[in-house]
């Protein structure tokens, strides 16, 4: 009798349980059983409550700060490796610590590289993630990386808005490639914001390169943290004559007083994915789920079929 490849098992880190439930439902499988034992000092230990020997497993967990989220993923990977799982895929909708992808001044770490090595050392045999802060982070891994684009969700949404005089904008020079890709898909104009930072998360100067007079502008970025850049850019564009300004950002970190900034800004709406769970609701924030995208890719990975269409902008 030929060997039958067992169906994969899907598990969730605690910070991504809601998204993992959506993904497993879209995949057509039940979420695997795992418990976390916690000590009084904060130390925790994950435990798979079912056999994973010889199977392919997917561990779903975004690694947004604090460090507990990354540590959960590492411990889950190690537990799966020691339980003799056949293939161990870390499904990381948001790959944390990615902004530290190079040495921008002396005596600092390259945290993204360190995280990549830690994931591999812990037992990951494959990584599935979405909209990395920098594409070159894929090169930090020796294992296969499936880098997906949230544009597969955002582009249909933008097309359905049927906005006249649509203009795509990048909130900084680093995001210009992403903005040009969206503009090409939507056949629209592009404008770029030029900014200088006083320090991390603090903008000292912002200028606009391009004309937004009478345009409906959509800002495109991979993440929104304090929302300082997006809200400042939106206010600047309205001052320069834009009819409306929206923003699409894949990962909604929304730390500090980000929610207050968004509510007070000239942004019509902020469209994000559920790669990171929102801390609270906002009338200006619309969430598009990435569950179907990840479920589809996981199915293709397990059955060894092409996923190249999910890499395209």
UniProtKB/TrEMBL annotation:
<keyword id="KW-0460">Magnesium</keyword>
<protein>
    <recommendedName>
        <fullName>ribose-phosphate diphosphokinase</fullName>
        <ecNumber>2.7.6.1</ecNumber>
    </recommendedName>
</protein>
<dbReference type="InterPro" id="IPR029057">
    <property type="entry name" value="PRTase-like"/>
</dbReference>
<keyword id="KW-0418">Kinase</keyword>
<dbReference type="InterPro" id="IPR029099">
    <property type="entry name" value="Pribosyltran_N"/>
</dbReference>
<keyword id="KW-0963">Cytoplasm</keyword>
<keyword id="KW-0479">Metal-binding</keyword>
<dbReference type="GO" id="GO:0005737">
    <property type="term" value="C:cytoplasm"/>
</dbReference>
<dbReference type="Pfam" id="PF13793">
    <property type="entry name" value="Pribosyltran_N"/>
</dbReference>
<dbReference type="GO" id="GO:0004749">
    <property type="term" value="F:ribose phosphate diphosphokinase activity"/>
</dbReference>
<dbReference type="GO" id="GO:0009156">
    <property type="term" value="P:ribonucleoside monophosphate biosynthetic process"/>
</dbReference>
<dbReference type="GO" id="GO:0005524">
    <property type="term" value="F:ATP binding"/>
</dbReference>
<dbReference type="GO" id="GO:0002189">
    <property type="term" value="C:ribose phosphate diphosphokinase complex"/>
</dbReference>
<keyword id="KW-0067">ATP-binding</keyword>
<keyword id="KW-0808">Transferase</keyword>
<dbReference type="InterPro" id="IPR000842">
    <property type="entry name" value="PRib_PP_synth_CS"/>
</dbReference>
<keyword id="KW-0545">Nucleotide biosynthesis</keyword>
<feature type="domain" description="Ribose-phosphate pyrophosphokinase N-terminal">
    <location>
        <begin position="9"/>
        <end position="123"/>
    </location>
</feature>
<dbReference type="GO" id="GO:0016301">
    <property type="term" value="F:kinase activity"/>
</dbReference>
<dbReference type="InterPro" id="IPR005946">
    <property type="entry name" value="Rib-P_diPkinase"/>
</dbReference>
<dbReference type="GO" id="GO:0000287">
    <property type="term" value="F:magnesium ion binding"/>
</dbReference>
<dbReference type="GO" id="GO:0006164">
    <property type="term" value="P:purine nucleotide biosynthetic process"/>
</dbReference>
<dbReference type="InterPro" id="IPR000836">
    <property type="entry name" value="PRTase_dom"/>
</dbReference>
<dbReference type="Pfam" id="PF14572">
    <property type="entry name" value="Pribosyl_synth"/>
</dbReference>
<dbReference type="GO" id="GO:0006015">
    <property type="term" value="P:5-phosphoribose 1-diphosphate biosynthetic process"/>
</dbReference>
<keyword id="KW-0547">Nucleotide-binding</keyword>
């Amino acid at each position: 009798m030929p060997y039958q490849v067992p169906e994969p098992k899907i598990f969730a880190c605690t910070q991504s349980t809601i998204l993992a439930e959506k993904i497993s439902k879209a995949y057509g499988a039940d979420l695997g059983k795992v418990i976390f034992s916690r000590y009084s000092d904060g130390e925790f230990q994950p435990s798979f409550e079912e056999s994973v020997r010889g199977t392919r497993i997917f561990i779903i967990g975004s690694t947004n700060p604090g460090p507990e989220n990354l540590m959960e993923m590492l411990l889950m990977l190690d537990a799966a490796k020691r339980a003799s799982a056949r293939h161990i895929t870390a499904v990381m909708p948001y790959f944390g610590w990615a902004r530290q992808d190079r040495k921008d001044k002396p005596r600092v770490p390259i945290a993204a590289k360190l995280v990549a090595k830690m994931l591999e050392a812990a037992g990951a045999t494959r990584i599935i993630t979405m909209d990395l802060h920098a594409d070159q982070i894929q090169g930090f891994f020796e294992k296969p990386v499936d880098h997906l684009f949230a544009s597969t969700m955002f582009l249909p949404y933008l097309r359905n808005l049927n906005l006249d005089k649509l203009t795509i904008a990048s909130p900084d020079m680093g995001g210009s490639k992403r903005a040009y890709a969206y503009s090409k898909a939507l056949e629209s104009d592009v404008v770029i914001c030029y900014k200088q930072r006083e320090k991390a998360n603090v903008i000292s100067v912002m200028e606009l390169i391009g004309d937004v007079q009478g345009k409906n502008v959509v800002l495109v970025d991979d993440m929104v943290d304090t929302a300082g850049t997006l809200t400042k850019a939106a206010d600047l564009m309205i001052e320069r004559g834009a009819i409306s300004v929206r923003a699409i950002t894949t990962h909604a970190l929304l730390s500090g007083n980000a929610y207050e900034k968004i509510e007070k800004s000239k942004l019509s709406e902020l469209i994000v994915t559920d790669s990171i769970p929102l801390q609270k609701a906002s009338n200006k924030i619309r969430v598009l789920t990435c569950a179907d995208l990840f479920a589809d890719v996981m199915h293709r990975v397990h059955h060894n079929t092409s996923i190249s269409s999910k890499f395209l902008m």
